[in-house]
Amino acid sequence: MRWLVLIASLWMPLVGMASEVRLKDIVEFDGVRGNDLIGYGLVVGLDGTGDGIRNSPFTEEIMSNLLERLGVNVSGEDFRPKNVAAVFVTATLPPFARVGSQIDVTVSAIGDASSLLGGTLVMTPLNAADGEIYAVAQGTVIAGGATAEGVGATTTIGVPTSGVLPSGARVEREVDFDFTELDALRLALRNPDFTTALLVENAINRQFPNSAEALDAGTVRVSIVGAQAGSPARTIAVMENIRVEPQQKAKVVVDQRSGTIVMGADVRISRVAVSQGNLTLRVREDPLVVQPNPFAEGETVVVPRTTAEIEEEDGTGLAEVPDGTNLSEVIAGLNALGVSPRNMIDILKSIKAAGALHAEFIVR
């Protein structure tokens, strides 16, 4: 029964021995990357859930500029629409995107609009970090939440002030990058590790002899000429399906907010003794109201009455955690203490401080 309770209350995945994975799943290829885009626009057609113009003067400014570009003179006019919201529009321009292709965009309200549900994004240019326009977004916003409001209460599900436009932007400019002119490729490991870099080098050299070289823990250089596979695109197509067995340092990751503990397969604990117990302090206030007798002189007073007590719960005694030769034995030794997940976190911290936990300890 204890094991069932511990398994239900403590999510501690048993990470087995590393298995072979494709190269494309652990590295990024140099030059094959996206570019972030951002724009500032208007969402119109809202059902009274837009910005309050007095609270969001920038909405009125951009709306006036847009109408004037369309030939409508609104100078000096007093208009207070509630169906318009100012938004930031963000997107990622994928690698090798061509003019005319479409990409997804996200819109987020920046004023006091309560919902973007049912709105339409007006044509919005999207700029990259160099200030150039690379795409233009326009279309119906799909919001992911809803708000219900009454006289005495309001409830909200999701985030109605943010939404997406699937394929809502059209690419108008391409990134100037000639992939075919590369004479070498650099592979960047997502999780840098010297052993993994050497394994990647060896795996590529088995496919393309004498073409790969590990430069550091996070970079492997591959010669296109040495690979003799033709174009860089053909070389990558073959390399990304090569399988390797990545290696990582032993880690224990702890999330104190949720009480989650995740251990890697290589975590080891030296022989150590652990004792755990709790002190509980209870303070209770039971004030007593004292009143004078009827028709007697005096006043009503509140007499404080406090009860304080300290209880010490039975601990586990001094329990021995043996040498952990594998992850299953480590977990079995820790679970034998019969403690809660949050107390388990404190125990792991203490074991690490004692020098008996042989892994990188990460607290989030």
TrEMBL record:
First and last residue of the signal peptide: none
A GO CC annotation given for this chain: outer membrane-bounded periplasmic space
Chief localization: other
Protein origin, superkingdom: Bacteria
Localization per record: Bacterial flagellum basal body
Record flagged with keyword Hydrolase: no
One GO-annotated biological process of the protein: bacterial-type flagellum-dependent cell motility
GO molecular function: structural molecule activity
Cited InterPro entries: Flag_FlgI
Keyword set includes Amino-acid biosynthesis: no
The entry's keywords: Bacterial flagellum, Cell projection, Cilium, Flagellum, Periplasm, Signal
PANTHER family reported for this sequence: FLAGELLAR P-RING PERIPLASMIC PROTEIN FLGI, FLAGELLAR P-RING PROTEIN
NCBIfam families: PRK05303.1
Subunit structure and binding partners: The basal body constitutes a major portion of the flagellar organelle and consists of four rings (L,P,S, and M) mounted on a central rod.
Record's function text: Assembles around the rod to form the L-ring and probably protects the motor/basal body from shearing forces during rotation.
Family statement: Belongs to the FlgI family.
Identification of the protein by name: Flagellar P-ring protein
The species this protein was found in: Qingshengfaniella alkalisoli
Classification lineage: Bacteria, Pseudomonadati, Pseudomonadota, Alphaproteobacteria, Rhodobacterales
Gene: flgI
